[in-house]
Amino acid sequence: MRELCVAVVGATGAVGREMIRVLDEGRIPVGKLVPVASERSAGRTVSFAGREVPVMRIDEGDFPRWTEGVDLALFSAGAEVSRRYGPLAAGAGAVVIDNSSAFRMEKGVPLVVPEVNANAALDRPRGIIANPNCSTIQLVVALKPLHDVAGLGRVVVSTYQAISGAGARAVAEMEDQARDWASGRPPIARVLPYPILFNLLFHDVKEGSDTEEETKLVRETRRILGLEDLKITATCVRVPVQVGHSEAVNVEFLRPISAAQARAALAAAPGIQVLDDPGERRYPLPRDIAGTDAVYVGRVREDPSAPGALNLWVVADNLRKGAALNAVQIARFLLDQGSL
Amino acid sequence: MRELCVAVVGATGAVGREMIRVLDEGRIPVGKLVPVASERSAGRTVSFAGREVPVMRIDEGDFPRWTEGVDLALFSAGAEVSRRYGPLAAGAGAVVIDNSSAFRMEKGVPLVVPEVNANAALDRPRGIIANPNCSTIQLVVALKPLHDVAGLGRVVVSTYQAISGAGARAVAEMEDQARDWASGRPPIARVLPYPILFNLLFHDVKEGSDTEEETKLVRETRRILGLEDLKITATCVRVPVQVGHSEAVNVEFLRPISAAQARAALAAAPGIQVLDDPGERRYPLPRDIAGTDAVYVGRVREDPSAPGALNLWVVADNLRKGAALNAVQIARFLLDQGSL
Lengths: 340, 340
Known about the structure:
The structure is a homodimer.
Chain A: E1 4-9, H1 14-24, E2 30-37, E3 45-48, E4 51-54, E5 56-57, E6 72-75, H2 79-91, E7 95-98, H3 114-117, E8 128-130, H4 134-150, E9 152-160, H5 168-182, H6 212-225, E10 231-235, E11 245-253, H7 259-268, E12 272-274, H8 286-289, E13 295-303, E14 309-316, H9 320-336
Parallel strand pairs in A: 1-2, 1-6, 2-5, 6-7, 7-8, 9-10, 12-13
Antiparallel strand pairs in A: 3-4, 9-11, 11-14, 13-14
Helix pairs in contact in A: 1-9, 4-6, 4-7, 4-9
């Protein structure tokens, strides 16, 4: 198989670093890695295949040089960067898989979770494929096999999202707060709006009363599942955890499904690990699953408050399956299909 | 007004200490405080009204001495202690307000949140009044005014519960884990089943698939609201926060209610503070409300996924309104009614 030239744009961020780690695991053949970042990261290097690779600047001197010969460009440097450079990289011949929110709801840009709608990635008239938001990915992976069995009626989601979802600097800020707390110093918040150590936070609201994260979760879930009118509502909360998003999901179904049937359908589905024996204190927790690939589902319970409703607890590494791994899995699918 | 002799049983625990702080705020006239605890706390003192008061032992030498002349006994030393000594204290003439789960579902023992069902406290044939579980109290305070306006249809709750709900030793363990983390040492879990720093946890499951906390929340909510068949389901999660339980609450109503109507009903209800301007990042967070009295409600949002449904975010200090303050408010009500 031919080796790919892969650019990672946003190579020094939380997701970019995870993308390079995932690429280094050999899931797709990478002949050349091109790490790209903003001026802030000028002069830095990233480790890949046992070597230090210098980071290229996205603009000025290094553009368009870094796009030359790139087969695959994984973007995770924010929506503005994607909007500006994504089409340029695609125009230069790369398949762009974009982890930002820039194109997720745009026509002509498929929004893809391989376990759910892999084939959508084959039809990409603009050369760009959108990687969904972290909290969406793990939700749709868990909902899909249940939808196939019983049909989704209404979904109520409450999230418990790790701080790495706000970026590497937010994690560093939380960890600084922990060190400051241990030394008796007050917490300082510069990246996030309030201290997150021993606290909870919300994402920001741009318009209306839902946060942007809640709006993304609702819209992206509908689009990926191909259920435009899916009844779904979300409350998204940041918790003081470094890595691993958790979701309490209540689902009403169109046709009856027992907890046992749901567990069986989930266990048979791709990308899911069922971990469900609460009497033995076996359930997925973020600390335990960080660094792994699967979407973990536990605490599958029948909910007698509505006919045929279930509660689920869904946990995944938000940097891996929630971002970097999903992007690389899309690339793997394209390779297997001869589409990259 | 006559001054009361008040025993606090479990005086050295997280809730017991908060009870003594709340009593020290002068909400009821306390002529004499009798702190009571297990053998483990023998020889300790507690601060009250500017003095150090020696802790009496619940058993052997100090029993039944500590019950003598006690008008009001506030219990928070676990269900076993309440089952054994609650009836003895009541038999000795005290009004017992019990914060454990021992009597909450028992006939002849009212389960009381003053804002919701204060009058129930007047009918206590066994001399015992049960104080509800922390996560229940703040939920029913928020639900009651909405139920009065629009009628509760179905409630889906996901909780974000502070570690003080597991006791003072659990908080100390989490804080030790933070200090250990800052010093590069691995976390140690002895009180809670797994490390809670930078993690989430569940309460234990005794039977079935719901945790005990989830079962309490469902049953107690129904009992306090007097809605035996209320459709309600809960997922209860512990988060690494010292004080302050938060709840994401989705409510379907029997009659339509707008977010604005709900906010107005909540703002007019006793014991509630509405804090709801997410565009200005105003919403209740545990770090901000710890140490205060109210049940805070924010993020009141219409939920288009079901007719007339709303999302709410409900936060309260689990040691105060969730336990100690609620117990003292019951006593205050009894005093005002001439029933203590």
